[in-house]
Amino acid sequence: GKLALLGMNQRLRRRLLTAARMLGEGVIGRIYYAKAWWLRQSPSPEMLIARKEWGMSRQLSGGGPLMDIGVHVLDKVLACLDFPEVSGVSAGLSTGIGKDIAHSYNLDYEVEDFVCGLIHCADGCRIHLEASFFHAFDGKETQGIMIHGENGYFDGENIFQRKPGSTEYHPVPLSPDETYPQSSEEHFVHILSGEAEPLATLEQGLAELQLIEALYRSADRNGQFEPLSS
């Protein structure tokens, strides 16, 4: 009689859920490529110190930016693709910058700075994932998703459709479906009141964790392809 809701607050938003439904209905045709990223140049000194007991230990935290922030943008993409079957993954990571910065605060940094991964879906679609705590770029923190189909694309906010026989793209009206929650908090309240079933399930969370663990295994083997059984 118990219900469980994963705290995937990036996904549980009315506009994204509406777009995911439209993508599933084929508004941009066959989806062949998707990208998700959450990149930070570096955490603040306060964050480094606050996480020194656990956040820099791979054993205690489970991982770095892939496990911490990358999972949220991965969840958004997988939801938009209706959690496709995955045949395998490959990944690479870097570790140099974080160790150097942490050393200046007399801290040990064991998790990755940056990770990039490629997820091979059984239907031929590929998902490119990037996440970082430390990354060599001069810019602000950035995150997002892009989903590309043969007849259009979704940029995380709006859907654009290609005109037949043309390379012109035009926006598709996206009127948020009021049957979807506006936020994860609203969805949680609706579950408690018996008005809704959890949209972010434990089964989905397990699938995402298995993907992340497979990406780490691939990275630990210098990017070798890591197959996943169905």
Write the layout of secondary structure elements.
Blueprint: H1 14-24, E1 31-39, H2 45-50, H3 58-61, H4 65-80, E2 86-94, H5 96-103, E3 114-121, E4 126-132, E5 142-149, E6 152-154, E7 159-162, E8 169-172, H6 184-192, H7 202-220, E9 226-227
Parallel strand pairs: 1-4
Antiparallel strand pairs: 1-5, 2-3, 2-9, 3-4, 5-6, 6-7, 7-8
Helix pairs in contact: 4-7
Write a structural description.
There is one protein chain. The chain is α+β, with helices and mostly antiparallel strands. It has a domain at about 30-160 and about 200-220: Dihydrodipicolinate Reductase, domain 2, CATH 3.30.360.10. The protein is about 30% helix and about 25% strand. The chain contains 7 helices and 9 strands, in the order αβαααβαββββββααβ. α4 (about 65-80) packs across α7 (about 200-220). The mean pLDDT is about 90.
Task: Summarize this entry quickly.
This protein is α+β, with helices and mostly antiparallel strands and 230 residues long. The protein has a domain at 30-158 and 200-221: 2-Layer Sandwich (Dihydrodipicolinate Reductase, domain 2), CATH 3.30.360. The protein is built from seven helices and nine strands.
Descriptors:
alpha+beta; Dihydrodipicolinate Reductase, domain 2; nine-stranded mixed sheet; 230 residues
